[in-house]
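Quick start: load a record and inspect it. Here is DUF4536 domain-containing protein:
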Amino acid sequence: MSNIIDVFNPRPNRELSEQETMDCLPCQVMSSFFALGFGGYLATGQPFKYTDKERGQGITLAEFEKRNPLWWKYSLRGFGSVLIAFGIVRGTEGWIWNKDKKYKKF
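Running the structure step on this input writes:
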């Protein structure tokens, strides 16, 4: 059955076993690295650098600043900081916060 048909005629719900819902160590590592990396990218303001790419497209510095208002810059920087905090919490979850945590066996 295709995924499109599942939207209109969904499969019946089932109870998931504990093994299916357990966290896995590679998942935890990848999510913490992604959150730290992308959060660092946003928090440092890298998306808002006026570069040669914008100059080549004929966008002036004033127009570039108009397209990226301060509230937008501060919002994304704040979101980047939240992602960094999430990455730290997620990365240290198994060995600092929750020492009894069990991971999925492969």
